[in-house]
Amino acid sequence: MNKRKKIVVFTGAGISAESGLKTFRDSDGLWENYRIEDVATPEAWRRNKSLVLDFYNERRRQLLNAQPNAAHLALVELEKLYEVVIITQNVDDLHERAGSKRVIHLHGELLKARSSLNENLVYEWRTDLKIGDTCELGSQLRPHVVWFGETVPKMQEAIKETLDADILLVIGTSLQVYPAASIVQYAPRNAEKYYIDPKADELSFYGVQAISKKAGEGVPELVKELMRI
Predict the structure, then answer these.
(1) Phi, psi values for residue 85, rounded to 5°
(2) Cα(226)–Cα(77) distance, rounded to whole angstroms?
(3) Secondary structure (DSSP) of 153-167
(4) Residue 107 known to be catalytic
(5) 63, 88, 149, 196: least buried by Cβ within 10 Å?
(6) In 3D, which of 72, 123, 117, 122 has the Cα closest to residue 97?
């Protein structure tokens, strides 16, 4: 029996935008009302924990009311024929809710909280996170997300998975947030590469097939092609 080909899928905020989750870089995105420096850095956390918690509580509530869209659901179909690993910059759980089995979250997970004293103490968390919510060590819980200026713990795991990809799908990302965006550089030279994004023609990189469509349209179409190969 032939070994199944491996597809690595790298997703950004664009794939979740069609589920109603605002992206940071759009004109109506969340950063319109919040400065990065005020809500998504270690310094912001030290300066104003309540503001940071309010920001992520708002996002968590929004996520709990969202549903996976056609793009998330289409990617699950690939698992019938391929080994599939999803590497996402998103902190939502829409890939998992759609049914994807292997998901690497580079920037953390919104529905989890972690100790501000020991980053290995992580808890499932689906309600508002408040001042006074503590871990078993007694330290304040913080969102389980990677803030600007912090290291990306799962970067090496993501690179390792990408190194032997037969096919790379890049979906809904501007490829502007590093180090996450560097993932695409680790795909083998001879791997098939596809980039699905409304601005794919403008942002495309060498050796990739650009598909300038929203994820909800472009991903199901590409999945149908890949399922016929």
Answers:
(1) -125, 125
(2) 10
(3) TTHHHHHHHHTT-SE
(4) yes
(5) 149
(6) 72
